[in-house]
Write a structure and sequence with these properties.
Elements (H helix, E strand, L loop, with lengths): L3 H8 L2 E4 L3 E5 L6 E5 L8 H18 L6 E3 L10 E5 L8
Antiparallel strand pairs: 1-2, 2-3, 3-5, 4-5
Bound molecules: zinc ion (ZN) (2 copies).
One zinc ion (ZN) binds next to helix 1.
Amino acid sequence: MGCDLCEAAQITPWHYEDDVCWIADCEVCDVPMVVWKSHSPTPPDDARAHMVAQLTIVADRVLGPETYTIDQVMRQIPDHFHAHARIPNWWFKG
Ligand SMILES: [Zn+2]
Ligand SMILES: [Zn+2]
């Protein structure tokens, strides 16, 4: 079985990319989502902090400062680290 997040790395238009992570709009939630480039659920603390910081920069630009919260709960794909910038009414979208 393939991993959706590993595969998405090849097809999704990205807001941001570096050696650690990439950020794109989540197809399901339609909000910015940071995805670790390693297929693992447990990034080291420095990588996790880096990804949250980058997601914050993108979400400030896309959604607006203080309109969202960083959600690190991995509901759909629990074995590959990712985090969403959730706006309060995200579950009403699409
Ligand atoms: Zn993966
Ligand atoms: Zn999502």
